[in-house]
Specification:
Number of strands: 0
Number of helices: 7
Oligomer: single chain
Shape: globular
Radius of gyration: 17 Å
């Protein structure tokens, strides 16, 4: 189990410094428009380390969740603000997108849906650039 989980520290907070995000807003990089100053400065190795830590923590914590809990609808907006430091004013789209969603959706979307959505975007950009191999 990671030190962040043992200490109940949010996982992201344990990686902020390595990701070069110290001194930036908690919502840095989450705006609807890409902030190139943030994304260009992310060290790839630290980003991969964080990604693996997220998947490891998710795998570990999923084994502790009773299947009935997957149907509950948590107070996501309150938790985004109080636990993650993400205000409605800064990332209203995220609060709205995750509001009134059951736990199963909050697991499924970031792990499965989000990644696939970005793959679709990448394919679309590649095709529009005339780089499709087909």
């Amino acid at each position: 189990m990671s030190t962040a989980i043992r200490n109940r520290q949010p996982l992201f907070a344990a990686h902020r410094s390595a990701l070069g995000l110290d001194g930036r807003r908690m919502s840095a990089g989450l705006e609807e428009r890409e902030d190139l100053a943030v994304t260009a400065a992310l060290p790839n190795e630290a980003l991969l380390t964080y990604l693996h830590a997220v998947f490891d923590a998710t795998r570990s914590n999923l084994g502790k969740i009773d299947s009935m809990a997957l149907e509950t609808v948590p107070a996501t907006s309150r938790r985004l603000a109080s636990k993650a430091g993400l205000s409605v004013d800064e990332v209203g789209w995220l609060h709205k997108m995750w509001a009134d969603r059951p736990v199963w959706w909050l697991i499924q979307w970031p792990i499965v849906g989000h990644g696939h959505a970005h793959v679709g975007e990448a394919i679309s950009v590649r095709n529009r650039m005339g780089l499709s191999p087909f």
